[in-house]
Write a structure and sequence with these properties.
- The longest helix is centred in the middle third of the chain and has 14 residues.
- Strands 21-22-1-23-24 form a five-stranded mixed sheet, with helices on one face. Strands 2-14-16-15 form a four-stranded mixed sheet.
- Helices cover about 30% and strands about 25% of the residues.
- It is built from 14 helices and 24 strands.
- Helix 1 packs parallel to helix 7 and helix 4 runs parallel beside helix 6.
- With about 425 residues, the chain is α+β, with helices and mostly antiparallel strands.
- The protein binds uridine-diphosphate-2(N-acetylglucosaminyl) butyric acid.
Length: about 425
Amino acid sequence: MERYRIRGGNRLHGEVEISGAKNAAVAIIPAALMVNGKCRIENLPRISDTEALLLILESLGAKVERIDRSTVEIDTTNATWMGADYDRMRRIRASYYFVGSMLGRFGVARTTMPGGCNFGVRPIDQHVKGMNALGAEVDISDFITAHVPGGRLRGASVYLDKVSVGATMNIMIAAVLAEGRTVIENAAREPHIVDLANFLNSMGADVRGAGTDTIKVNGVEQLHGGVYTIIPDQIEAGTYMAATAAIGGEVLIKNVIPKHLDCITAKLREMGVTVEEYGESVLVRSAGRLRRANVKTQPYPGFPTDMQPQIGVALAVAEGTSVITEGVWDHRYKYINELRKMGAAVTVDGRVAVVEGVETLRGASVNACDLRAGAAMVIAGLCARGVTLVEDIQFIERGYENFVGKLRLLGADIRIIDEPDGTERDTAAAG
Ligand code: EPU
């Protein structure tokens, strides 16, 4: 049973290198199934979600060569839609992108229902609506099975009832090889949507308008191989920004696209944090007590829901009363119970949390309820007096590459220990 042991109190100082974007990578790997030939993907984050997706691709008959820590070469020439590693599929959210890529390439798909973080009900009706519009028949039970009666999807107009990252990407993937033009309206606009479109276009697709609310996909006959570099992870960068803000110190966050961080930068500045932007890095400096702020999460370019728990911890130690409104998920406050164990004063009513800032948190034994909640617990532990143990760290390792190693390089006192025998996992070497 591995867990993190954190001794709070050390300010963060130094430089941290951000990895490739998780939520782009987890769509690009399944989308690689659409490519007829070899594609090389660079700046791939080395996290358990991408590793699981690569293993799923292999179970479908793809050849996956790991060139170095952040580069893979994928050849799906001999892949099929059958025989997937259903156990792995069931555990991760992004496995639903295989529905789009299997339907697009083979006209048939079979996947499990997706897993992922538990924020209450996570419907996939907009994905299904999109696939239906493109001519697929979809049946949902424990598995998602779908087929296209004519063999090839046909372009169509799809108006999403809800702005959905997953549905936008899934429909985009499926439409790339469809006959004719697909128009996705009320599309999500996150940086990873643009990144997926750029990946597909670099392999010969014709996707236009990604990053706006209307995406047009002109179907092509086939995609060719190529090389693609994934953008830096907006949320990983934001997590180190929030950590520096809450804990205090000065950190240069490298390999980022500052524009993608605008909403986070603006909020931290409002809280009294200094953020300086350079070409591909941001410098975050925080001294003294943070100021209160209100935060409302929204689809991009709004404040990201995937940063809500991390900023929540910063507000928990800020001066005054802050209000958080969660605008995307019904249940994303499970971490508040854990934070209360550390002395935070927060009340939750539906999608609203009222945070009365306290001067200090105290170490406790807490759970990483999900990926971002887990990151928030780590930040809280690094702010707190005394020792914090974070359990269920497998959630955190799904989405943060070498979290412990990177934090240690910034001076944080955090270790991975395997209890009951107390052995420590080596993290420093990986930097
Ligand atoms: N929704 C529907 N019907 C659908 C799809 C979504 O009603 O068919 C609703 C959801 O219930 C939610 C809203 O639409 O209220 C937005 O959901 P979205 O589809 O955008 O979320 P997702 O694609 O399942 C991705 C990220 C999440 C991130 C959200 C929002 C991946 C694998 N996951 O999820 O990331 O919170 O977008 O930005 O890309 C994380 O990285 O920690 C994470 C949870």
